[in-house]
Amino acid sequence: MLTKSYLKNLVYQVNGAAIEVHKALGPGLLESSYQKCLEHELKLRKIPFVSQKPISVDYKGETLELDFRCDLLVADCLVIELKAIEKILPIHKAQLMTYLRLLELPEGLMLNFYVTHLYKEGQKTYVTQSYRNLPD
């Protein structure tokens, strides 16, 4: 059963892996570079994930494949959206929240590797209503 404490621990583990990647690479690379390195770090830490998870939508009784892909889906319950940009904009938050809604998942993590200190300014979690309904 999925719980808030399980998700909190998972976010902590993923943040640790992302910080390790950021310490090694620093800011200034392309998003794809951070993704490959984060995938490797998650493998080293034995954290299960799917890369570039396709997202579909049910529309008027049909399941339609969209051109959306979440960067990482960790442990089948946490969406990770990676960025390497100067500033996170409202459209980026909307993108992550849309992925959460379409995948029917409770929590997502935005990681922006462009920043100087990932642990201070480059990570933010987002939750849906379904997160609030999870047991502690």
Structure, described:
The chain has 136 residues and is an alpha+beta fold. Strand 2 (62-74) and strand 3 (78-83) form a beta hairpin. It has five helices and five strands, in the order H-H-E-E-E-H-E-H-E-H. The protein has helices at residues 4-25, 31-44, 90-103, 118-121, 129-132, and strands at 49-59, 62-74, 78-83, 107-112, 123-127. The chain has one domain. Helix 1 crosses helix 2 (31-44). It is 43% helix and 30% strand. The chain has a five-stranded mixed beta sheet with strand order 1-2-3-4-5, with helices on both faces.
Q: How are the elements arranged and paired?
A:
Elements: H1 4-25, H2 31-44, E1 49-59, E2 62-74, E3 78-83, H3 90-103, E4 107-112, H4 118-121, E5 123-127, H5 129-132
Parallel strand pairs: 3-4
Antiparallel strand pairs: 1-2, 2-3, 4-5
Helix pairs in contact: 1-2
Overall number of structural domains: 1
What is the number of helices?
Answer: 5
Question: Which of globular, elongated, flat, extended, rod-shaped describes the shape?
Answer: globular
Strand order of the largest sheet: 1-2-3-4-5
Instruction: Return the string of H and E elements.
Output: HHEEEHEHEH
Compute the separation of the termini in Å.
Answer: 11 Å
